[in-house]
Automatic annotation (TrEMBL):
Pathway: Metabolic intermediate biosynthesis; chorismate biosynthesis; chorismate from D-erythrose 4-phosphate and phosphoenolpyruvate: step 6/7
PROSITE patterns: EPSP_SYNTHASE_2
Protein name: 3-phosphoshikimate 1-carboxyvinyltransferase
Main localization, broad class: cytoplasm
Entry superkingdom: Bacteria
Record lineage: Bacteria, Bacillati, Bacillota, Erysipelotrichia, Erysipelotrichales
Reactions catalysed: 3-phosphoshikimate + phosphoenolpyruvate = 5-O-(1-carboxyvinyl)-3-phosphoshikimate + phosphate
Length: 423
């Protein structure tokens, strides 16, 4: 799919889709609960669909409706019929599933696409090796066999928080207490708290013993719940930056009390001098001059690509630090943004862990971008293109389906001039 984005001034109100991170978590918790849960306000992106299909294979009964799901959880971890679990390109799905499916005590094969199996899995490999369980990986698959045991887990905190979330879903179901020690540097901490908050809604309790240690009692039982997914602050950020660099926008569908780490976009915009008005279920963001700031991505990695777009229109230099994990997402997101933005003359440089962008107010545009098979790169480039003088073409724009299939339609609703075609 190719998207040609013409220069435009957005206006009006956009409603952001429900949080992908919270949807994965709610579907998984409901699938592990004894009884029927209703999970409302779900958007069926590719990542959410693979989590849903995986939970069906585990034995959950799921009725899928337009924007909600009725989920009756599994009775027990019996032998499953189909042991091939497809995760496509979803890191969350794969890393949340591996410990959960270990409870089936049978050989399970996880299939990945794109870059998924090249993204690091070493934390689980080490745990499985230590517990003398089988964990084999090749270019497109991971095969496990054997059940994780309760006990002490010491895990690195700087590769992906998704390993820790995966353990948190699973350890409460074991017969004894477990302790998770998270090594410093501990990044994406907010995502661990999202997992813990979701577990609590399903009556699973875990306890922080200190800033890096979590105690998980065994023999717990997930209870069903009726839960509505709140708006996604990672997706909000694309519209927040669009408003800041281009024209005022009202952005709705948000829980203003949200604990999502990517809610940091609001304070980042404010720090850069942008005016943010809080409204009942969203925000009004005003277009303005973007002042030079330093942005720390330690707790909000998914904001990285769109913040490079904020930087390219800044009045001065924007420095992004603790960005190293962007290199192990669906693409090397630092390299991808550097390559693409340089095509239109952006002054952008990186080290392994930092990005520096010297902004200016105008770019000629008229270039052909590559989407790097990464939804957040495609969406960021579309926002960057909105303010250029000539239309830009984004190749591989279908990558948006991973998290936000209606992104271009939503952009069109607020005045976006985008022409989509199949090649
Ligand atoms: O737990 C989650 O829902 C996520 C955690 C983050 O990953 P890392 O912890 O690997 O940084 C984030 O980048 C990803 O998009 C979603
Ligand atoms: C990195 C992302 O997701 P995941 O890790 O689940 O593939 C993302 O949505 O930006």
């Amino acid at each position: 799919m190719k998207a040609v984005v013409y220069p435009f001034h957005p206006a009006g109100t956009v409603t952001v889709p429900p949080s992908k991170s919270m949807s994965h978590r709610a579907i998984i918790c409901a699938s592990l609960a004894s009884g029927t849960s209703i999970i409302r306000n779900i958007a069926w992106s590719e990542d959410i669909l693979v989590t849903l299909e995986g939970m069906k294979k585990l034995g959950a009964h799921i009725n899928q409706y337009d924007d909600y799901a009725e989920i009756t959880g599994i009775q027990s971890f019996q032998d499953i019929q189909d042991t091939n679990i497809f995760c496509n390109e979803s890191g969350s799905t794969l890393r949340f599933f591996i410990p959960i499916f270990s409870l089936c005590k049978q050989a399970i094969t996880f299939h990945g696409q794109g870059r998924l199996m090249q993204r690091p899995q070493s934390v689980y490999k080490e745990i499985f090796d230590r517990q003398h369980l089988s964990f084999q990986q090749d270019q497109d698959h991971i095969k496990i066999n054997g059940q994780l045991q309760a006990g002490e887990y010491t895990v690195r905190g700087d590769i992906s928080s998704q390993f820790i979330s995966g353990l948190l879903f699973t350890l409460p179901l074991l017969d004894k207490k477990s302790i998770i020690h998270i090594m410093e540097p501990f990044e994406s901490r907010s995502y661990i708290q999202l997992t813990i908050d979701m577990l609590k809604r399903f009556q699973i309790d875990v306890e922080w013993l200190d800033e890096n240690t979590i105690a998980v009692e065994g023999k717990q039982h997930y209870q069903p719940c009726d839960y509505t997914i709140e708006g996604d602050f990672s997706q909000f950020a694309f519209f927040g930056v669009l408003a800041a660099i281009n024209h005022d926008l009202c952005i709705k569908g948000m829980d203003i009390t949200s604990k999502q780490g990517d809610k940091a976009i609001l304070s980042i915009l404010e720090q850069a001098g942008i005016t943010v008005h809080t409204e009942e279920n969203g925000y009004q963001i005003q277009h303005g001059i973007i002042n030079p700031i330093t942005i720390d991505l330690q707790d909000c990695p998914d904001l990285g690509p769109i913040l490079t777009v904020l930087g390219m229109y800044a009045k001065g230099t924007i420095q992004i630090i603790h960005a190293g994990r962007l290199r192990i997402k669906e693409s090397d997101r630092i390299e991808a943004m550097e390559t693409e933005l340089r095509k239109c003359g952006v002054n952008i440089h990186s080290t392994q862990d930092t990005i520096t962008i010297c902004g200016k107010t105008q770019y000629q545009g008229g270039v052909h971008f590559n989407g790097h098979n990464d939804h957040r790169i495609v969406m960021s480039l579309a926002i960057a293109a909105s303010r250029m003088e000539q239309p830009c073409t984004i190749h591989g724009a279908q990558a948006i389906r991973k998290s936000y299939p209606n992104f271009f339609q939503d952009l069109q609703k607020i005045g976006g001039k985008v022409v989509i075609s199949d090649d």
